[in-house]
Amino acid sequence: MTLEESRAAYWKANLRLLAILLTIWFVVSFGFGILLSQPLNAFSLGGYPLGFWFAQQGSIYTFIVLIFVYAWRMNVLDRKFDVHED
Amino acid sequence: MDLQTLSFLVVGATFVLYIGIAIWAKAGSTSEFYVAGKGVNPILNGMATAADWMSAASFISMAGLIAFLGFTGGAYLMGWTGGYVLMALLLAPYLRKFGKFTVPEFIGDRFYSKTARIVAVISLLVISITYVIGQMRGVGIAFSNILEMDLTVGLVSGMVVVFIYAVFGGMKGITYTQIAQYVIMIFAYTVPAVFISLTLTGHAFPQIGLGSTLVGEDTQLLQALDQTLMDLGFAAYTSITGMSLMNMFLLTLALMIGTAGLPHVIIRFFTVPRVRDARKSAGFALVFIGILYTTAPAVGAMAMYNFINTVQPGPVGEPQGNVVIDERPDWMVRWEQTGLLEFEDKNEDDRLQYYNDQNEEFAEMAREDYGWEGNEFTKIDRDIMVLANPQIAGLPNWVIALVAAGGIAAALSTAAGLLLAISSSISHDLMKGVITPGISERAELLSGRIAMAAAILLAGYLGLNPPGFAAEVVALAFGLAAASLFPVLMMGIFVKKMNREGAIAGMLVGLGATLLYIFLFKGWFFLPGTNMFPDTAEYWLFGINPTGFGVIGAILNFIAAFLVMKVTKAPPEHIQHLVEDVRVPRVGTS
User: Fold this and answer.
1) Of A40, B189, B531, B545, which cross-links B523 as Cys (Cβ 3.0–4.6 Å)?
2) What is the total count of domains within chain A?
3) Global confidence as pTM
């Protein structure tokens, strides 16, 4: 693989990861927390109606996990394509 | 010791701490002044970012906002945290890789244009200055309402402290004070919340308490709150109230995109050593922010529950059900003195009634069956939901003093970050970049300090003479950030062929359209009475609230940029190489 092809493959893998993570980001907040909140409220998590929980708690926890997963996966990609620092 | 003296000691001690840090962390070079020498530990930077980000609005106002909105208040929680996902995944690591000092500098270099850089500086100044007004107001609230001290004295002493650590320490001084401010702020926020949660639900974690049953009962807290509100003619707490789902959707998105485009937050990620540190640091920033943001909805709901049960301890409708005015708790008396809480005994029964008199059917029934002549709370400032919390929970005076110190820490830490973004864009982008490129490093550092001092004076002046539109403008700053900076930053990284003409057109269209829409409903340059349409839902374009319009501005920015890009020349070869280099953490082979 030439350097250029390797760069292109790295970027493609990066975009794929972004697509997956941003889909989850959207579905959890805009989907579960807003658009689907009313039907989800039929279920509950402890004393929380589920849609309400996503809007005021769950989406924030999900966001935190998403960023750490991103950092972890990108570090793996960096090494795989030999563009890591140090 | 009385509250006044104790507050003075606690707030004074925090100020001494900030000044001590300033002396320890004096900036000696432009790199230290702008980006703390790029040597900040990523976890500590996460903490500093959390303080940078969480403003007086997050600390003082957000829980109250949620308390009165209920479910739809989630827009603020998701919007102000979800933006970090965008910033962490789409901007921060790449801008750190670029490795320069300011956000307009990236835009100027990437789009090989001084015009683009100047347009970016203008956007940055509009966003940051409007935002800083809100922080000064926050310092004022903390001093005059919590500490009952003179506003001018409080504001001036706050400014002197910021002056010392921001002018001398630059980003280095600001970073280490922000870390201290985060610790003070989070302690001050969570201590009262934990006690209230324990009292109401028996759970120490408010995040769990909010989803639990009340102490000694089988009823869930949220169910009880829903029921109480409905008994008083309000909509249920967990139902859609306050705004439509569409506006909740748009507001959330506008706040997210706006958050991701805020320059004073982005530059925090320039201070860590490596790209991988920037990614990690964004995660930790959101952990530290999340501690407050997952506590806030519990604070809001529990404060609302406490408030209603204080006013309405007995069954709704029974003559003995409401609190007797002469027996109302001390915290009410105290907040009446500050003017944040006002009541009027409309039906002259010597008791207080709080209910929804805008609900005509319920108000009619309450008049006939209960003898209620209208909601007797003529003013409830939303901020008291946080400010009065320690007293409602019966906590000792030192906690009240701590809440004041926390509010001041939240306001000062954000103000300092904004002031640095303002001064670096003036000394580095305008002076060094455009007006006097030959300037020496020492002269640039001096001009940075002068710009910082001038910005502090301006912020202080605006804090003492707040323009009438101050509170509204802060929310609108997000719309402007969303519509102007975020799209060009993103396209600068992800669209290799995006050129100078496209970027400038995009920024101008996004900023222009959003300002225009805001001015149409809020008045030209916010002058009262100059608005073309009333600011109500039936006049809004497709029912879109001006505060949520940033999303449309951002979309217009993208569209304009792509259209112009299609009909103009592609960027030069070396710019396309620059983009390729920004996309990888390390260039070259090992």
Assistant:
1) B531
2) 1
3) 0.93
